[in-house]
Write a structure and sequence with these properties.
Elements lengths: L2 E7 L5 H16 L3 E7 L6 H11 L3 E6 L5 H11 L4 E4 L11 H9 L5 E5 L7 H18 L11 E4 H5 L11 H7 L5 E5 L15 H19 L3 H33 L12 H27 L10 E5 L14
């Protein structure tokens, strides 16, 4: 199979029929073998019914329905496990992403050999309240990750199958899939300018709170990417630094005490326990030991196989219970 198209959908019943026809037309024109995986992320309208209709008309259209809204990361994580195409393409269900971009995205993966191609909505049809914060977060992400992309959060992306089978997307980390892929060793990442269409139906599902969560997620993914397999390097280093500071303060206190008793024989103006440096030494020593122990515990946990989170799926159409990965040899 050439292509798997993954489309998370939340209350997009008006868009599904038009989007399905558009994708079918593009695939048939270029002679691709394909599947389209719709993930109904707890819709409260007729989205699931439209997905079922699409499956009846064309068995290449498949669907997975969540029992409630888990979020885009959960939808992508679940669909990635089911995808079978050599190239996996993700796009939004609101018709703002154009299926006409699919052939070129496919070519960049198959012929140019990129691991991941991210869309860049250079000309956006969004209000300034979304574009300005988005530019700021993209700038910060570029600097922290070292990946020269202009639009990390663009829903239109293409991947080698090996990429989606070997990364885990959770929480709200879908914004930083290129960063996750890079830390997993898939470093051939590029971007392509794509068309951003005006929303035709429905409304945006994202609010201001996503920018706060996005910044926290960026800090998390940066830390995890660098230290997930070697947490002792982080906690141990700062633990040693704190312990040495505490040890230095302790030596200073002992030296002053010995000097006042044995050498200068001038009594200290204050007892040791009344000096601020005593409490600084105590706190630094305790924090140093705690950080060091935290590093040991984290190191033990990092060496255990972590079970992947599963999301409750209550219905399926056209999707088997399990799909044999084409890249098991890579795991």
């Amino acid at each position: 199979m050439n292509i798997s198209v993954i489309i998370p959908a939340k209350d997009e019943q008006e868009s599904i029929p038009e989007l399905s026809q558009w994708i079918s037309r593009v695939m048939e024109t270029h002679g691709f073998s394909y599947e389209v995986l719709f993930i109904d992320d707890g819709s409260t309208d007729g989205t699931w019914q439209e997905i079922q209709k699409a499956n009846l008309l064309n068995s290449s259209f498949k669907g997975i329905k969540f029992n409630r809204n888990f979020g885009k990361s959960a939808a992508l994580h679940t669909a990635f496990k089911e995808a079978q195409g050599d190239v996996v393409i993700t796009m939004d269900a609101d018709l703002q992403d154009s299926p006409d971009e699919i052939p070129e995205l496919y070519r960049l993966i198959k012929e140019e050999g990129f691991h991941l191609v991210s869309g860049w909505k250079k000309k956006r049809h969004d209000p300034i309240s979304k574009t300005i914060p988005s530019k700021f977060f993209n700038y910060v992400t570029r600097k922290l990750s070292g990946i020269p992309l202009h639009d990390f959060n663009c829903g239109l992306k293409a991947y080698q199958l090996a990429v989606v089978k070997n990364i885990s997307v959770y929480g709200e980390m879908h914004r930083y899939i290129p960063v996750i892929a890079k830390w997993a060793g898939f470093t051939k990442i590029t971007e392509k300018v794509v068309e951003h269409r005006e929303r035709k139906y429905g409304y945006s599902k994202f609010g201001w709170e996503r920018f706060v969560r996005g910044f926290l997620d960026l800090l998390s993914i940066t830390f995890i990417g660098r230290f997930a397999q070697r947490p002792m390097h982080f906690f141990g280093t700062w633990g040693i630094v704190s312990f040495l500071f505490g040890l230095g303060f302790t030596i200073k206190i002992l030296y002053d005490k010995i000097d006042s008793v044995l050498i200068s024989k001038i009594p200290l103006k204050r007892d040791v326990t009344e000096q601020p440096i005593f409490f600084l030494a105590l706190v630094a020593l305790v924090i140093g030991v705690q950080l060091f122990l935290t590093g040991f515990i984290a190191e033990l946990l990092a060496r255990q196989s972590v079970s992947k989170k599963k999301y409750l799926v209550i219905d399926r159409v056209g999707v088997g219970e399990s799909v044999k990965s084409k890249v098991q040899s890579l795991k």
